[in-house]
Amino acid sequence: MLARLRIDPYILALLAAVGIATVLPCRGQVAAVLGGVADGGIGLLFFLYGGRLPRHVIVTGMTQWRLQLVVLLATFVFFPVLGLGFRAALAPWMPAALLSGIVFLTVLPSTVQSSIAFTSIARGNIPAAICSATVSNLAGVLVTPLLVALVLEKGAGASVSLDAVWKIVGFLLVPFVVGHALRPLIGGWLERNKHWLGYVDRGSILFIVYIAFSEGVVGGIWHQLPPASIALLGVVSAALLAVVMIALTWLARRLGFGTEDEIAIVFCGSKKSLASGLPMAKLLFAGPTVGLIVLPLMLFHQLQLMVCAALARRYARRQGPAGVLRAGEVE
């Protein structure tokens, strides 16, 4: 049934974490201890990601600098401009924390796993997709907090300072670099155990969601959220995704990219990372508004999965040669 409805089971797990936080939120010293555990989970998440990444794929993908530039500009320029526009247009009808969440969503890096998976299904340029998604996430470690400091209004819950940037470098970039440096030693073990290590990745994210929404429940923030705002947020998410995907498709064809490259551009340039966004939100924002700030990201994440799944199948049905590289050939 879930397959027919195209609902990612992980989204149900995220909703369950929100439900548990609503009924049994963590408080006081328990919240402080669990927050420390979550910080450790963030570091482990990016250490594992760095250890899994094959270096030769990055070298191959970086040769296509025009494609990489289009994806980076879409991710960190076009998206934020749209976010600022939506914030200005929706200010009279939506709580400030949700507006901040929309802007925060637009300054995040692209996804990694799902961008590559959908590019593979669509028979696109997989090495370029791997490179684009990875470079986007590494750039986001520094670019995202700087953009947050630039575009989020004071009082929106942002506490972006040099200390906050160093926290992100310490919890995200350093573990990634260490994991990638150790790849010759741990890469084989990570590959053999990737199934159960996937639960570590997802479990870390669920933990962060629980803590963020617990803070919102304890702070009474959910009483400030009208149901109409959630419905409007769904419409905004759909409009945001549609505008970006249509614009990227048009631009890729206008610039003369082939279909395989167009696929990588559309899937990498139109998506936002839940795995990077939630840890960043935990490190960048303080107080009970964190739950509301990450709500647009959680909704957009599910929407992008459903839309990209349908689009990938449509691309895959086209006539012509297969993509540049099959998914099984990445390693």
Treating each run of at least 4 consecutive H or I residues as one helix, how many helices? 15
Domain count: the total is: 1
Shape: globular
Task: Identify the quaternary structure here.
Answer: single chain
Low-confidence stretches: 1-5, 322-331
CATH architecture: Up-down Bundle
Distance between the termini: 33 Å
Could you estimate the helical fraction of the residues in percent? Answer: over 70%
Q: State the total count of DSSP E strands.
A: 0
Biggest sheet record? none
CATH names the topology as: Na+/H+ antiporter like fold
Question: Helix- and strand-based class?
Answer: mainly alpha
What Rg is obtained from the alpha carbons, in whole angstroms?
19 Å
What fraction strand? under 5%
**What's the CATH first level?**
Mainly Alpha
The topology string of helices and strands comes to HHHHHHHHHHHHHHH
Mean pLDDT: 79
